[in-house]
Each structure stands twice: as structure tokens, then as C-alpha cells.
Design brief:
The structure holds two protein chains of two kinds.
Chain A: E1 8-12, H1 17-29, E2 32-37, E3 45-46, E4 49-52, H2 55-61, E5 66-69, H3 76-85, E6 90-93, H4 100-112, E7 116-118, E8 124-127, E9 131-134, E10 146-153, H5 156-168, E11 173-178, H6 189-198, E12 204-210, H7 215-223, E13 230-235, H8 259-268, E14 272-273, H9 278-286
Helix pairs in contact in A: 3-4, 6-7, 7-8
Chain B: E1 2-3, H1 5-14, E2 22-25, H2 28-38, E3 41-45, E4 58-61, H3 64-74, E5 78-79, E6 82-83, E7 87-91, E8 95-106, E9 111-117, H4 124-130, E10 135-139, H5 148-154, H6 163-179, E11 182-193, E12 198-200, E13 204-207, H7 216-219, H8 229-236, E14 240-243, E15 248-252, H9 255-267, E16 274-277, H10 286-295, E17 301-308, H11 313-327, E18 333-339, H12 342-353, H13 361-372
Parallel strand pairs in B: 15-17, 17-18
Antiparallel strand pairs in B: 1-13, 2-7, 3-4, 3-7, 5-6, 8-9, 8-11, 9-10, 11-12, 11-13, 14-16
Helix pairs in contact in B: 2-3, 5-6, 10-11, 11-12
Classes of the chains: A alpha/beta, B alpha+beta.
């Protein structure tokens, strides 16, 4: 998903340390935050913004396009269901270590109400020059400059490095879509690719994948029909099998999930797969 | 977290799924005694890994003497990286047919997926290839639970047992999955006996690590990952540290960037010595993290790769520099630093360590790989 600068954002967990810090950064950058949620502080003001007890209460008083959650793992299910019930169309879930069954419950409820979920375990999304939602350093000129490359990444730290490389290479960024490092997520690589394909401000795509699951393979099926050039890097090729490297992995079925399988699928679809992330900027500049 | 067969079967049994009568034992004498009561039996190594049969960890015995001999052969053997300390002695079952049943988290349908095949006993990947038509795949809505009528309708016309019995068993298997925040619960083989009963002959069960805090009693019966002595130290310190075979020590922030640093080391002809992620809250633990990386005798040099998003590279670099100066290790160190706080971080590295971080990650990696080979940096 892409969030535009005119969309309104509700911050669930706005009064916490992270919620406060990042709400301030988001507002400075241009994100239209209309307030936040904390059941214990309903009716108060925080950062000069209203605090509601629930997202449903907030939605009764003001129009909300996006909810972003600074919520601990075991509180995510309730908070997300509250946002879905409130009729909010986009939810950004940053939290790591959300139980997968809770994620699946939220995604089933979201699908029924036509609500898009991004994450869990994402660093968020950036629409360069307009707004950002989450905790990517959109405001850092080394990392983000306006341009035409759309970036999809499962990882925040690696996604940051790729954006920075693109900026160093003189290529700017249209949008960054952090999809998250969990095994089950609301917006897949393919979903994000479709969004960037349809985004008129995006002319090329940098795809940052990881071993595990089959999202890159599914994205490759879609990439086959795309006209915009795509360069990719898949992290984890050197990871020994059976060991989890920080991000939760996924079940490998047949030849899906391995580095070799993802590389082959993407290359067959015409995607340039780079051996190190610095190759992405080069490939897109020359392509 | 994985579970050994007996621990998984305890969960099946609690949900009303029949399992063979059996005893968990740690000595051959105990196995002999159990076999006297059970009669013809199977002695099975209890380690949370596959391929036990191929490794010789499963043996059939006709009587107590045979069972004792089997236990002596199996106890103490190593399968994968697991030493066998316990065996499960189970009554032999009169098998007519072997089937397959599982429920797992499915990233594609983003919900639970029930899998069933009337052809079982072999890996699901093999079933998918050799009998694709026989594999029933039913995505479920986790809010509504198991859908028995839909499952029954999806079953093949010809079955070696009662259809309703299979649906009933799948419902119970789903309950084990849902109740315990499982990633996967699998029965392979699920057997049909001569008198038409369904019995779980094996069980693979994996719980979602993120959900363990709400399943502490069940998690007690699981098999924690086998860790090296250094990994144990890392775990106690709350660090994500994995020891590997190579010689380039790696320190980076964030799971994706750390993996990528390892990939780049390998791409340029070296081998990483570890996975160590010190970003986020962990930068305050730079000293113990560095001690841990350096405690690995294979480490010939250290590669530090920071990319600051919300994590500040100046704060992380300061932690590493302080630790480096306190420990004074006798190996070269290479930095590449980008993002939030990079100007301050780079200046600090130059001033306090007298070295210049590399502009390009690839150049830092190449220098580290050369140094690890014993060449000039």
C-alpha cells in the first residue's frame, strides 16, 4: 500500500515512548496525524492531539484513513480488531513477535471488511516528500530523496541500506514499502509489486527479499508481465539450513524457500538478481 | 520450538486422538521391563528431528530381550546434531494402510491449512509429487475453526476407512493446533488398523516461538534449540548470536542487514564466523557482544556493518569502540557505516581507532575477507 500526504492517521499506542517519538517525527515530515488511542488515557491530550479510548470512538468523531500500531505483541490482536471494526481501511503493524495465530485472525477479519494490513514486523512505509507511517527515517536526506524507484523490503535495516545506495547513485525513491519479516503478513511481496506497478510516480522497482516462504516466487509470476524494470537482492543465501537468522522463517515446500529457487524464479521473470545489495542501484541506473 | 514425538503425542492424546500404548524410557532395563508388558514393540529415539528411521533410530523388537538390545543400540547415538537420551517403547500396531494428516500456518492463504492424504508414510513433499491428486488441501478461517462438512466434501471418493472418522480426527488435530498456537502439527503415518481404527503412529509438533509466553506449561515439554557454549552465553545476555564455521567475525544491526553482511562475506570468497545482531536495544551490550564474537577462536578479523534507520549509528559505534578499546583484541577491524548518525560515527572511528570506515559495504567486506585469509588488508 501507499499512503498519500492527504490521508489521516491514527496512532494506536501514541502515549508510549516509541509512539510519542515517532508521532512527532511523522508530523514533522508531513503525516496528517489526527490523534491516538490509549484506553487508560481517553479524553486527555498528547502532543496537542486528542487521545481516545478506542479506534471506534476516534472514528465516530473524525475521519481516519490509516491506523499505525505501537502496541506490544500480545495487544496487537485486540488493537487491530478495534481498528478494523472502526472501519479504518489501512493498518500498519510494526510489532515484532506477534503470535502468528493472532496475525491470521486479524487478517481474516480485515479481508472481510476490505481493510489492507501491512506487517506485522515492518518498519513501515514512506511516500517520499509526502508522509511516512512507522519508523523509517524518511526525514534523513542520506536515505531518502525524491525520485522514481519504488522499494519493497522485508527488512528495515537492509531496506534502509538499499534506499541509501539508490540515493548515493543519484536515483531517488518514490515510495518505500516495508512488508515485514514475519512468516505470515498482510501485504505480500506480490501485493506490493502490484501497487508499485500501478503507481504513476514509480518507474522502476528495487525488490529486497529474504530466504523462506514463497513470496518472491509469487512476486516473480507477476513480475513476468511488468514493463517497469526490477532489480532484486535476496538476503540469507549464506545462512545455514535449519537455523533462524533473526526473522522468523517459513515452511519450505518442494524447491520453494531456498535462495537458489527464488533467484531462478525471479531471473526467469526478467528480474536482475544482484549478489550484494549495492548491485541494485547499479542495475537500475544502467537499466 | 520443536517437540519430540512423545511430547507431541501427549498433546494428541489429550485431544482424544488415539496413539499406541507406550512408555518413555532412559535406560535399556526400563525398556525391557516395558516390553514385557507391551509385547512385540517398536523402540524409537526421542529427538526433535526427522529421518530417525534412516539413521537407525527406530527398531522393531519381538520381545523384551530384543527391545533391550534395540534400546542399547539407540540410546547414546547421535541423529543430526541431537544425542539420543530417551526412547519411546510402543506396542506394535497391525497396520493396514498409512495415511497423512496435518494442520499448519499457511503464508499463502494467510490462515490455517489442513492437509490430508490417504497415501502416507513418506514425506509430504514426496506425496505432493508422487500423488498430487491424493493430497487434500483445505484453507480454513481461524475465526471459525475446523469446517468438518467442507473437509468431508473435499475428501476423495475412495478411502481406506470411514469418512466421518477421518473428519472427526482432523477436527481434533485442528484443536491441538489452535489450542497450542502451533506452527505445524503433523501425523505421518496416520494408520488404519485391521479393525478399522485410526491411530497416530508418529507426531511432529512445532509451537510458534512468539506465542510461548502464553503456553509456558506446554513449552516445558518441548525441545529447545541445541546451542553451543558461546550461543548459550549469547542467549543469557539476550543477544541474537549464532556460531558459524568461518573466520570473519560479523557485527551488524537488524536481522536483514546481518544476514546480508554474511552473504557478502561469502560472495567475496570468505566465510562468516557468526550471526550477531546488535542493533535496537542491544547496542548497549556492545562489550559482551564483542567478547562473544572474539571468544570464537576461528575469528581472524571483525567486520562491523551499521545502517541506521531508527537505530543511531553513532550510539552503536560508540559502544563498539569502547568495547574494542577495553578488550584490545589483536585482530584487524573493518567498518562500514551508513544512515542516521553516520557523520558522527565515522568521525569517532577515525579519531579513536585511527582507521577510516569504508564508503561501500562491498569494499569493507573485501578487505575483511583478505585479512581473514592472512593477506594485507
Amino acid at each position: 500500500m501507499i499512503v498519500r500526504g492527504n490521508e489521516t492517521v491514527l496512532v494506536q499506542g501514541i502515549t508510549g515512548k516509541q509512539g510519542t517519538f515517532w508521532s512527532e517525527r511523522m508530523r514533522e515530515y508531513g503525516t496528517k496525524i489526527v490523534g491516538g488511542v490509549n484506553p487508560k488515557r481517553a479524553g486527555e491530550a498528547h502532543l496537542g492531539l486528542p487521545v481516545w479510548g478506542t479506534a471506534r470512538e476516534a472514528a465516530r468523531e473524525t475521519a481516519i484513513d490509516v491506523a499505525v500500531m505501537f502496541i506490544p505483541p500480545f495487544g496487537v490482536k485486540e488493537a487491530a480488531l478495534d481498528a478494523i471494526e472502526a472501519g479504518i481501511g489501512k493498518i500498519v503493524c510494526l510489532t515484532e513477535h506477534v503470535p502468528v495465530h493472532d496475525t491470521m485472525y486479524v487478517l481474516a477479519a480485515a479481508r472481510e471488511r476490505n481493510c489492507q494490513v501491512i506487517g506485522p514486523n515492518t518498519a513501515g512505509i514512506v511516500t517520499v516528500g509526502e508522509c511516512f507511517v512507522g519508523f523509517m527515517p524518511a526525514f534523513n536526506p542520506l536515505v531518502f530523496q525524491p525520485g522514481k524507484v519504488g522499494v519493497i523490503s522485508r527488512s528495515g535495516s537492509l531496506g534502509t541500506l538499499v534506499c541509501l545506495n539508490l540515493v548515493q547513485a543519484g536515483l531517488g525513491i518514490s515510495a518505500f514499502i516495508g512488508i515485514g519479516g514475519d512468516p505470515v503478513i498482510g501485504t505480500t511481496t506480490r501485493d506490493a509489486l502490484m501497487v508499485l506497478d500501478g503507481d504513476e510516480k514509480t518507474a522502476a522497482v528495487a525488490l529486497v527479499g529474504e530466504i523462506g516462504g514463497s513470496m518472491e516466487e509469487e512476486a516473480a509470476e507477476y513480475a513476468r508481465g511488468m514493463k517497469k524494470p526490477i532489480a532484486a537482492f535476496i538476503a540469507g543465501g549464506a545462512a545455514p539450513p535449519g537455523k533462524r537468522m533473526g526473522h522468523a522463517g517459513a515452511i519450505v515446500m518442494g524447491d520453494k524457500g531456498t535462495y537458489a529457487g527464488k533467484k531462478a524464479a525471479l531471473e526467469a521473470a526478467g528480474v536482475t538478481v544482484c549478489p550484494t545489495p549495492s548491485g541494485i542501484a547499479e542495475a537500475l541506473r544502467n537499466g | 520450538m520443536n517437540f519430540a514425538e512423545h511430547a507431541g503425542k501427549a498433546l494428541l492424546k489429550a485431544a482424544g486422538i488415539p496413539v499406541p500404548e507406550g512408555v518413555l524410557a532412559t535406560t535399556a532395563q526400563e525398556v525391557g521391563r516395558a516390553a514385557q508388558r507391551l509385547g512385540p514393540c517398536v523402540v524409537k529415539a526421542q529427538v526433535a528431528t526427522g529421518k530417525r528411521g534412516k539413521a537407525g533410530g527406530i527398531k522393531v523388537a519381538a520381545d523384551a530381550t530384543g527391545a533391550e538390545a534395540a534400546a542399547k543400540a539407540i540410546l547414546g547415538m547421535t541423529i543430526g546434531e541431537h544425542r539420543v537420551e530417551r526412547v519411546l517403547v510402543e506396542q506394535q500396531m497391525p497396520i493396514v494402510t498409512e495415511m497423512y494428516a496435518a494442520v499448519l500456518n499457511d503464508p499463502v492463504s494467510k490462515g490455517p491449512l489442513a492437509l490430508f492424504s490417504a497415501q502416507g508414510g513418506i514425506d509430504i513433499e514426496e506425496i505432493a509429487v508422487s500423488h498430487p491428486g491424493a493430497l487434500v488441501r483445505l484453507p480454513l478461517d481461524i475465526r471459525k475453526g475446523f469446517d468438518a462438512p467442507r473437509f468431508e466434501a473435499a475428501l476423495p471418493v475412495k478411502l481406506p476407512c470411514d469418512r466421518a472418522a477421518v473428519a472427526d480426527l482432523m477436527g481434533k488435530l485442528y484443536a491441538v493446533y489452535a489450542r497450542n498456537d502451533a506452527e505445524l502439527v503433523e501425523i505421518n503415518p496416520l494408520i488404519v488398523t485391521r479393525d478399522g481404527r485410526l491411530i497416530a503412529l508418529d507426531c511432529k509438533f512445532t509451537i510458534d516461538d512468539s506465542a510461548i509466553p502464553r503456553h509456558s506449561a506446554v513449552a516445558e515439554t518441548g525441545t529447545p534449540d541445541r546451542l553451543t557454549a558461546l550461543e548459550e552465553r549469547g542467549k543469557a545476555l539476550g543477544l541474537k548470536f549464532i556460531e558459524l564455521d568461518g573466520s570473519v567475525g560479523v557485527l551488524a544491526n537488524g536481522a536483514g542487514l546481518t544476514m546480508t553482511t554474511m552473504d557478502a562475506v561469502r560472495h567475496y570468497g570468505g566465510q562468516p564466523a557468526n550471526f550477531m545482531e546488535i542493533g535496537g536495544e542491544s547496542y548497549t551490550k556492545a562489550k559482551p557482544a564483542l567478547e562473544l564474537v572474539l571468544a570464537n577462536p576461528r575469528v581472524k578479523c571483525l567486520l562491523v556493518n551499521f545502517c541506521g534507520a531508527f537505530a543511531r549509528t553513532d550510539v552503536m559505534a560508540e559502544g563498539v569502540i569502547n568495547a574494542w578499546l577495553a578488550l584490545k583484541p589483536d585482530i584487524p577491524i573493518f567498518f562500514t557505516i551508513h544512515g542516521t548518525g553516520e557523520a558522527e560515527a565515522i568521525a569517532m572511528v577515525k579519531e579513536r581507532l585511527g582507521i577510516t570506515p569504508f564508503d561501500l559495504m562491498d569494499d569493507a567486506v573485501k578487505a575483511a575477507v583478505t585479512a581473514a585469509r592472512g593477506g594485507a588488508a
